[in-house]
Amino acid sequence: MLSGVFFNILVNICLCNKVFGVDYMKIVEMYESKKPVLSLEIFPPKMDYPLETVFKTLDELKKLNPKYISVTYGAGGSNRGRTVEIASRIKNEYKIESLAHLTSIGHSKEEVYSILNELLNENINNIMALRGDIPGGVQEFDIKNQEYMYASDLIKDINKHSGDFGIAAAAHPDGHPECSRLSYDLNNLKQKVDSGVDFLTTQLFFDNRIYYDFIEKCTQIGINCPIVPGIMPVLNAKQIRRIIYLCGASMPAKLLILVDKYENNPEDMQKAGIEYASRQVEDLIKNGVPGVHLYTMNKSQQIAEIVQNVGLEITTK
Ligand code: FAD
């Protein structure tokens, strides 16, 4: 008969899937490569759209040979099931590593643990751990009443749950909009990394100098993990204004001129946006970034153009 202790160990090992030879690779290991790593971000379609629409996009994105694909999470859990299902199909059917986003805002610890178990059951062990935005229009919403106040609280819990998870977190080169000073934000970021983060992905930015300065400041305060630049092409003037309003990224004059010029000409706006993002990526690669994370907005053709413009250097073949 198995002793109680031995039985528990066996159950834990089985739960971790290792007995079945499941490959639990942590994404951070990819950044040890000398070549820049191409990764992509997609979002689940809204609940009233068929889930299958995103797989048509993924069929195309797969051709770009990304090393991993991240799947966003609706803060508050509105499309939680869809994030897990899409991330699972990316990993288990498309055979591409997936990075499942998880926002803690609005979630209890119990709910978070249940999501972590779901992810491990689907062989997903890489998480982008986020706090999420404070809901707009909700009166008297007090972050202090949340079980998780900051992303770092979530990160500590993920590490407590299981050492199997590779953990990414968000960095904000332009400063997080809630924080009154970049230096405070940086110190909070340092605390977040120290709570157990493997690598950081940045919020979108449109001026590479902001990213380079940010990296310098991070190094000065001892943030030494890979900091992957997140790039979003401007494909729609109205949409980008809304995104900037929400995330607090600044827009350099040369991009503002393009957005003003092509505001009422969507086709030329797209061309200019693709060209602008391609030059940004090219410059980043020249300057030795660990990789580039493209915010695809589920637009495969435009993303393919950027990858082609930049050339084979970025691909991981
Ligand atoms: P935190 O790191 O918790 O920071 C939030 C604020 O609190 C900052 O101002 C910070 O300076 C401050 N702070 C942190 N720690 C402390 C502390 N100890 N004391 C005092 N102040 C502190 N949103 C979604 O809803 N779904 C997604 O899938 C999603 N994916 C994203 C992916 C990336 C790469 C990025 C950059 C953002 C993403 N977001 C997503 C947006 C993100 O949820 C928001 O930017 C959110 O407002 C902040 O999340 P965070 O994890 O950076 O929070």
UniProtKB/TrEMBL annotation:
Entry's EC annotation: 1.5.1.54
Pfam families from the UniProt entry: MTHFR (PF02219)
Catalysed reaction equations from the record: (6S)-5-methyl-5,6,7,8-tetrahydrofolate + NAD(+) = (6R)-5,10-methylene-5,6,7,8-tetrahydrofolate + NADH + H(+)
GO molecular function, one term: methylenetetrahydrofolate reductase (NADH) activity
Gene3D superfamilies recorded: 3.20.20.220
GO aspect biological process, one term: tetrahydrofolate interconversion
Swiss-Prot/TrEMBL cofactor(s): FAD
Keywords for the protein's UniProt record, in alphabetical order: Amino-acid biosynthesis, FAD, Flavoprotein, Methionine biosynthesis, NAD, Oxidoreductase
InterPro entries, A to Z: FAD-linked_oxidoreductase-like (IPR029041), Mehydrof_redctse-like (IPR003171), MTHF_reductase_bac (IPR004620)
Pathway(s) served: One-carbon metabolism; tetrahydrofolate interconversion; Amino-acid biosynthesis; L-methionine biosynthesis via de novo pathway
GO CC, alphabetical: cytosol
Top-rank lineage group of the source organism: Bacteria
PANTHER family named in the record: METHYLENETETRAHYDROFOLATE REDUCTASE (PTHR45754), METHYLENETETRAHYDROFOLATE REDUCTASE (NADPH) (PTHR45754:SF3)
Family as reported in the entry's similarity comment: Belongs to the methylenetetrahydrofolate reductase family.
The protein, known as: Methylenetetrahydrofolate reductase
Species of origin: Candidatus Syntrophocurvum alkaliphilum
